[in-house]
């Protein structure tokens, strides 16, 4: 009986966490460059139940031997194993802002170990040191003429330097080159992650590596094909209709576990108040 309480509780906790992930996705359905999170739910190892008894052997000494009778397996509950970001390309949104940039996915190699497809990301200078990465190309110019994102993080060039432009009258080519009056001044830094599932997702659409290391440049990587587009932003890849369906499914699963928990509670109440009187 008590094992049933624990099993139901794990189901409710897992569905609650899944609901939180889905609602966060829906809240960011209009956030540029946002990558929806996906959850994986697994069950704990099943417990094998057996009944141990003794039986007598019809001999002169009447020996007793243990008799094990298998009853069956018992589920010990479920848990949310991990949350992974979906790096599929979002739709392009025209903004008419020259400082806005969108990464356009072409082809990326498949990582042999994980089976995941790689992805390209903008390079940013993190205030704590090292680099941060993002797909949100909603950039602007600070008072000093540096290209920065919405949090004030400097956008880095291919060589790892801050990008400075005298004004917003510049052109961005598909290969990432920033030019003024047809004179190249910098190349927008784009990094490549062979296995994006190893990236750590942070607030405001930022990603970092687990060890704080720097990702390699996407330029010149074998099998990596991408492009950039000026005055466009990559929209969120959240599917609102599908997310709403998943949210309702998670809610119904939570509700079902809740009803089972209430049934267990009534059974325990009856056992204490009625059977206990016998």
From TrEMBL:
Residues 118-179 form the Flagellar hook protein FlgE/F/G-like D1 domain. Residues 229-273 form the Flagellar basal-body/hook protein C-terminal domain. It comes from Ureibacillus acetophenoni. It is found in: Bacterial flagellum basal body. Transmembrane segments: none annotated. It comes from the Bacteria. Keywords: Bacterial flagellum, Cell projection, Cilium, Flagellum. Belongs to the flagella basal body rod proteins family. The keyword Magnesium does not apply. Residues 5-35 form the Flagellar basal body rod protein N-terminal domain. SUPFAM superfamilies: Flagellar hook protein flgE. GO terms for cellular component: bacterial-type flagellum basal body. This is Flagellar basal-body rod protein FlgG. NCBIfam families: FlgEFG_subfam. One of its GO terms (biological process) is bacterial-type flagellum-dependent swarming motility.
